[in-house]
Amino acid sequence: MALPVVAIVGRPNVGKSTLFNRLVGKRIALVDDRPGVTRDRREGTGILLGTEFKVIDTAGFETDDPETLPGRMRVQTEAAVREADVALFLIDGRAGVMPLDEEVAGWLRAIDTPVIVAANKAEGSAGETGRLEAFSLGFGEPFGLSAEHGEGIVDLFEGLRPFIGREDEESGGAEDEEEEGGPLKLAIVGRPNAGKSTLINKMLGQERLITGPEAGITRDAITIDWEHGGRKVQLVDTAGLRKRAKVQDKLEKLSTIDTKRSIDMAEVVVLLLDATRGLEAQDLRIADQVLEEGRALIIAINKWDVADNASSLFNGIKAALVDGLSQVKGVPVLTVSAKTGKGIDVLIEAAFTLRDQWSKRVPTGELNRWFDDAIEAHQPPAPKGQRIKLRYITQVKSRPPTFVIFGNRLDMLPASYVRYLENSMRDDLDLGPVPIRVNLRMQKNPYHKRARKA
């Protein structure tokens, strides 16, 4: 059964994201002193006194023209409130009721969603005057709270309970169980304006994320639950990644950290390129970072429907990846159009296949038969006439596949031979183009100490 939904609304800079983080118990929404930090609506799961509910953080309510960026942000806020079970209208208790608060109140009165009001930044008695002023908004008794310090959260929950409470027998059930393996965690990354949000909107079939010609619209990493062909997917839209030297603004630095955290939490990462700009050095840096984090990678070339010299562009990108991503061979390179939706089905199928390979465990017997054959086909070198003995291999984990090779004189084994083993694994054990970790462990010589004593 779907969780009840609480949408947090209010004018800019009243502390909506801070309250969101408090309710979900994690610092996942970006917070800064300046107004307008939140743009897309962000969802999380909160739990208070045993009751679980969905929380939506929305952009600060603005009255700008719908065609402007603030206007497009307001459209997302309006959609969130209309879908919610209750709107939590937040004001700044220290500042009191402002003219824009009254405009927000007027809009909320015109819709059917129930509303409760809370005066934030009310540590001690600091916001009591503002809380009392909020009676004038016409939504009943306002609650005083401090999202930053956690004061008043229990009282707030009591106000929310009539709208989000569920009887125990209604919560959970066999129908809520996820399919084996859980949803595919798929993050979309790339440089600014590559079309990441547009691509996700096309997948969802709705304008869920704010898009536009302005670079850097997305700031938070936004996670959205989706289904494709009956299979569950968690799509993650991320902020564009620029060269580190160009990132000076504090908020952009926070966005970059948030994107990197999303890469670390993903199973498969799609690096979206702009076909009108081709492959740049920054794209290779992002791809390298994804692989270093041990995540499966797909390269998707967007805006393919308007690409010039498409065949030459595609071959050029593939050739550059061979040189630039030597640690993993055969990373899928696909073409998509976020505008028309062409290529999305192929992209998702490739992501599921990669997730399976990334999660694969090879039976011990099969693994060591492959190991013996690989060594027989290509013996390790004997530097300075000293034979390197490879005894056996074991898989210690998956996601990504990680192996340990045991033997003697492994400190003398060239990196090129380890790469040979990795590439053979990909081909012979169907591990595909996913990161593989190979660790070398030398066995102790039981006669070493005895020989020294002699």
TrEMBL record:
Keyword Cell membrane recorded: no
Keywords, in A-Z order: GTP-binding, Nucleotide-binding, Repeat, Ribosome biogenesis
A GO term, aspect molecular function: GTP binding
Database matches in InterPro entries: AAA+_ATPase, G_ENGA, GTP-bd, GTPase_Der, KH_dom-like, KH_dom-like_a/b, P-loop_NTPase, Small_GTP-bd
Annotated positions binding GTP 2: 190-197, 237-241, 302-305
Domain EngA-type G positions: 4-168, 184-359
Family (UniProt): Belongs to the TRAFAC class TrmE-Era-EngA-EngB-Septin-like GTPase superfamily. EngA (Der) GTPase family.
Assembly and interaction partners: Associates with the 50S ribosomal subunit.
Name of the protein in its database record: GTPase Der
Name of the coding gene: der
